[in-house]
Automatic annotation (TrEMBL):
This is phosphoglucomutase (alpha-D-glucose-1,6-bisphosphate-dependent). Catalyzes the reversible isomerization of alpha-D-glucose 1-phosphate to alpha-D-glucose 6-phosphate. The mechanism proceeds via the intermediate compound alpha-D-glucose 1,6-bisphosphate. This enzyme participates in both the breakdown and synthesis of glucose. It catalyses: alpha-D-glucose 1-phosphate = alpha-D-glucose 6-phosphate; O-phospho-L-seryl-[protein] + alpha-D-glucose 1-phosphate = alpha-D-glucose 1,6-bisphosphate + L-seryl-[protein]; alpha-D-glucose 1,6-bisphosphate + L-seryl-[protein] = O-phospho-L-seryl-[protein] + alpha-D-glucose 6-phosphate. PANTHER family: PHOSPHOGLUCOMUTASE (PTHR22573:SF2), PHOSPHOHEXOMUTASE FAMILY MEMBER (PTHR22573). Its cofactor is Mg(2+). Belongs to the phosphohexose mutase family. InterPro entries: A-D-PHexomutase_a/b/a-I, A-D-PHexomutase_a/b/a-I/II/III, A-D-PHexomutase_a/b/a-II, A-D-PHexomutase_a/b/a-III, A-D-PHexomutase_C_sf, A-D-PHexomutase_CS, Alpha-D-phosphohexomutase_SF, PGM. Keywords: Carbohydrate metabolism, Glucose metabolism, Isomerase, Magnesium, Metal-binding, Phosphoprotein. Its EC number is 5.4.2.2. It is an enzyme of class 5 (isomerase). Residues 2-87, 122-233, 242-343 form the Alpha-D-phosphohexomutase alpha/beta/alpha domain. Monomer.
Length: 502
């Protein structure tokens, strides 16, 4: 990247602690600020592979808008690697102490370059303060009625959590779990979900091995290794990522200063539940359904068409940067809680809890029951054949309906089916084969897609969604409500049970 004086500069976060959202914020802020153009910055990051069992470390390319490099750029980089004949190694380059903030200048083969070690959190904290009302969140956190807990799963989010939640917002040190970043994530798997965020899940009263004597906190959250994904929990209550983005969108204007003049639009990835669609329709907002992958949101944001977006894979964010943002999502929820509790933090008034907010949302907009089944390490050829069969079945919906009705007569008819194709309204590009959708007449959906991140063989993902508007039925357990749809899965996938259920 070029610094203001034209000297090439490498930016390094102090002690190597840089989160993905902070990188995006820094690129937008610094590159934009000095008017120079980055053709691509890269960092070594703990990237996460939701489909696979292991963490992998990789190089991530971010563009000048702070977003991930599109395939055209990474393909070009890959092509270039094939023609590299030699690369020089500067063995005598003095070591840069990355624990000390400052700039070190070097004379390189192609001229001068700088290495700047900077505080990894400074730019990000500044950005968060410009988005949220820190004073109102501070009040919430200091209320004896409200208890808070954040688990960084030993990922890089720990550094930001300490700075923001403890130093800026006054949360107690003891409310931070696993917030010391560790290279091996403390031996755990830094995935913010009910399976891997075990300690948090137990503390929030959601595990079978709860300590019955200890009252769980009112609010709990986790972020993944590079802090771009998040999980939101209430006391003994799980908020699905699909509900989380819908609830943030529904409350953004009232609760978050950055959005006070209105939302430009909202977007979700195709397999994410339609909870956000209902909010968009009710509030008259522009709405977009894009394929899985954050880059599709970035195009909309760059064109000023989208303010809030989210994915079922625990990614939530807004147009403040071009990455999903775990800490942002936590601050968004704390803002909503602070707003809803404006009148109830003092005196005898009862606290409006996370669960209250979600149930109120369902009562207003209806509830989307939602489950994702992952069939990991499926034979790649068999997976392709399965997809082919599912596409073929789409031309014989009466037969599909007959089979389903034969098992569960009460299930609505499949009204239409298609293979999701996205026409990008910004650049006109077309993305085909983005998942197979069976759309039921009552708004329920059955979606199949092959994961783009699985590490061995193929990972087939099946997303099951059922919409319930009847307020007397919105409190049922998700699995119960979906049972009629789930019973068809074995036949569709050729497997008796999924590897992971989310
Ligand atoms: O293709 P999948 O395995 O479902 O993975 C999907 C996820 O992969 C990465 O994490 C992307 O950054 C996400 O935007 C995407 O949702």
């Amino acid at each position: 990247m070029a610094a203001a004086n034209g000297v090439r500069r490498v930016w390094v976060g102090q002690n190597g602690l840089l989160s993905t959202p902070a990188v995006s914020a820094i690129i937008r802020e610094r590159v934009g600020a000095d008017g120079s153009r980055a053709t691509g910055a890269f960092i070594l990051t703990a990237s996460h592979n939701p489909g696979g069992p292991t963490e992998d470390f990789g190089i991530k390319y971010n563009m000048e808008n702070g977003g991930q490099a599109p395939e055209s750029v990474t393909d070009m980089i890959y092509e270039n690697t094939k023609t590299i004949k030699k690369y020089p190694i500067a063995e005598d380059l003095p070591r840069v102490d990355i624990s000390a903030i400052g700039i070190t200048s070097f004379e390189g083969l192609e001229g001068k370059f700088d290495v700047e070690v900077f505080d990894s959190a400074d730019d990000y904290v500044k950005l968060m303060k410009s988005i949220f009302d820190f004073e109102s969140i501070k009040k919430l956190l200091s209320s004896p009625k409200f208890t808070f807990c954040f688990d960084a799963l030993h990922g890089v989010a720990g550094a930001y959590a300490h700075r923001i939640f403890v130093e800026e917002l006054g949360a107690q040190e003891s409310s931070l779990l696993n917030c010391v970043p560790k290279e091996d994530f403390g031996g755990g798997h830094p995935d913010p979900n009910l399976t891997y965020a075990k300690e948090l899940v137990t503390r929030m009263g959601l595990s079978k091995t709860d300590d019955a004597g200890v009252e769980p906190p009112e609010f709990g959250a986790a972020a993944d290794g590079d802090a771009d994904r998040n999980m939101i929990l209430g006391k003994r209550f799980f908020v699905t990522p699909s509900d989380s983005v819908a609830i943030i969108a529904a409350n953004a204007v009232a609760a978050i200063p950055y959005f006070s003049s209105g939302l430009k639009g909202v977007a979700r990835s195709m397999p994410t539940s339609a909870a956000l669609d209902v909010v968009a329709k009710t509030l008259g907002l522009k709405f977009f359904e894009v394929p899985t992958g954050w880059k599709f949101f970035c195009n909309l944001m760059d064109a000023g068409m989208c303010s809030v977006c989210g994915e079922e894979s625990f990614g939530t964010g807004s147009d403040h940067i071009r990455e999903k943002d775990g800490i942002w999502a936590v601050l968004a929820w704390l803002s909503i809680l602070a707003h809803k509790n404006k009148e109830s933090l003092e005196g005898d008034a009862k606290l409006v809890t996370v669960e209250d907010i979600v149930r109120q949302h369902w009562a207003t907009y209806g509830r989307h029951y939602y489950t994702r089944y992952d069939y990991e390490n499926v034979d790649a050829t068999a997976a392709k054949e399965l997809m082919g069969l599912l596409v073929k079945l789409q031309s014989s919906l009466p037969d599909v309906n007959k089979i389903i009705k034969g098992i569960h007569p009460e299930v609505a008819n499949v009204g239409s089916a298609d293979e999701f194709e996205y026409n990008d309204p910004v650049d006109g590009s077309v993305s085909k084969h983005q998942g197979i959708r069976y759309l039921f007449e009552d708004g329920s959906r059955l979606v199949f897609r092959l994961s783009g991140t699985g590490s061995e063989g193929a990972t087939v993902r099946v997303y099951i969604e059922q919409y319930e508007k009847d307020t007397s039925k919105i409190s049922r357990d998700s699995q119960d409500a979906l049972a009629p749809l789930l019973s068809k899965l074995q036949e569709f996938t050729g497997r008796s049970s999924p590897t992971v259920i989310t």
